[in-house]
Amino acid sequence: MTSIRHVLFPGRHHLVTRFQVERLREILAGTAHDDGGSPVCVAEDAVVVWAITSATHRGTRRNPVPGHRREAMIELAAAAAGLPSLVTPVPDVARSPRFATTVVRSAGLDLGVELDPSSTVVACSTPDVAVMYRAAGFRVVGVEDARDPQSARPWDVLELAVRDAAGWRELVDPAALAHLERYGLLAAIRTAHEDPTVSADGDLTSTRDYATYTKSFDDGSDRKWAQVRPHVVPGRVVDLGCAAGGLLERASREARLGESDLFGIDVSRALVAEAEHRRDQGAFANPNVFFAQRNLLHAPVFEPRSVHTTLSIALTHEIASYGRGRDDLRLLAERIFDQTAPGGVWINSDVLGPAEGERVVDLVLDGDDAGRAVDMTGWDSDRVEAHLAALTPSQTLTQFAHDFPRLSGGRCRPERVAPGVARLPCGTRWSSSPPATTGATGSRSATSASPTWSTTTGSRS
User: Fold this and answer.
1) Which of 12, 31, 188, 322 sits CB 3.0–4.6 Å from 197 for a disulfide?
2) Which residue ranges does the record annotate as region Disordered (predicted)?
């Protein structure tokens, strides 16, 4: 039997545990058996190949630690333990039956080594992942599941760390723990896990189609920029909820903002990645454009009194929809006030909910036929657009009343009281719009009888 030269150890590797180091030593010493019971004969010059999956994914519950920090942690832990190792990042890819092949080829290409089943064994304790490597012809050696009872897996230890449970530090490799503490990564991990507004993948919802979402923002960016442009104060300009950077792209073309620094902040990993891609492709005329995945509700992003313009377009209704609602809106206003420099402004544009929201009203709509809602799941955007364009206002309401609750969890139950007439409360939650609020940097009021757009500019003196 050919001696094993590579021990492929795939995983997200947000922690290195004491047990992992111990188990890898056993495998390299040739005292381990694969999951079929056969001994694993290891060459004297064998190395562990740490394949860090989802290395391009960061700041989320699923992947709270940046890939480069994970690489450094493994290098330090391996060196301290005397484990001959190679470390390679594997980009975040959707899980598929070819996942194992993707990891093997990515690692082999990056390291310039041949990871084939004849000379490579896979160390893995995740059953569904192990199945993929076996299907690709690799032998699998258990790690945590090689013990009875099983040792704590890294993700189990990470969740203990989030809760600061007693004894979790003793489970982590000392060099890895020192690295986590040196760079403040434990706080970042806890922040990602405790954020109620963001999903495990770093998005506001698990159902949002970000390609469509980005297109809708970009389509309106010219109009939105024309609306806010006269109020922008040059200097440090921040777009909160920047999406894919459409508004800042317009701002970057402004001659009077040529010496300004433009910052885009969003909680969505997918949108920030798209914005950075567009910047790298030269979409922004101003070279001083920066993007970051941050949540202002969790911690201040900028130094006090350092921002000259804060933009928030269609953001406050999102904040009202997730987390603590009105309390979070107040916290947002306080944080923006704190970061605003004297003479700076906060420009906020969003929908306003109606006054007397419980008052029942009749909507008189063009088109007597209410029609029937259609399930558009799986349709591409062009087909959806064509279908909606052909509907009368009455039929559009029927379709909306079908789609909105299913996709958002909101409420929309119109009662048809006559042909072309729908009865519903004035305050039906078309979107989860916030109540009227007064913040530290400006005021908002709700006096409209139906949801309308409003732009408010607050200044700091």
Assistant:
1) 322
2) 423-461
Counting Cβ atoms within 10 Å, is residue 167 exposed (0-12), middle (13-18) or buried (19+)?
exposed
Angle at 21 between CA 19 and CA 27, to 5 degrees: 100
CB of 138 closer than 8 Å to CB of 120: yes
Please tell me whether residues 93 and 164 are part of one structural domain: yes
- Return the half-sphere exposure (C-beta side, CA atoms, 13 A cut-off) of residue 139: 23
Domain membership of residue 285 (yes or no) is yes
pLDDT digits (tens, 9 = 90+) for 206-239: 444 444 444 555 567 888 999 999 999 999 999 9
In the chain, pLDDT over 90 holds for what percent of residues? 53
Q: In the chain, how many domains are there?
A: 3
Please give the Cα distance from 352 to 450 (Å, whole number). Answer: 8
Range of the domain at 325: 210-351+446-459
Domain final position from 194, 226, 247: 194
Q: What pLDDT is attached to residue 454? A: 52
Three-state DSSP class for residue 321: helix
What is residue 374's three-state secondary structure?
coil
Mean pLDDT (the chain, rounded): 84
**Residue 184: which residues within 8 A CB-CB, separation 6 or more?**
none
Q: What are the pLDDT digits (tens) for 357-375?
A: 778 889 899 888 889 999 9
Question: Quick one: average pLDDT of 242-249?
Answer: 92
Q: Which helix (H) or strand (E) holds 331?
A: helix 326-339
pTM for this entry: 0.57
Claim to verify: residue 227 and residue 345 sit in the same structural domain? yes
440 within some domain: no
Q: Is 164 exposed, middle or buried (0-12, 13-18, 19+ CB in 10 A)?
A: exposed
Residue with tokens 């001959």: 84
How would you class 73 by CB atoms within 10 Å of its CB: exposed for 0-12, middle for 13-18, buried for 19 or more? buried
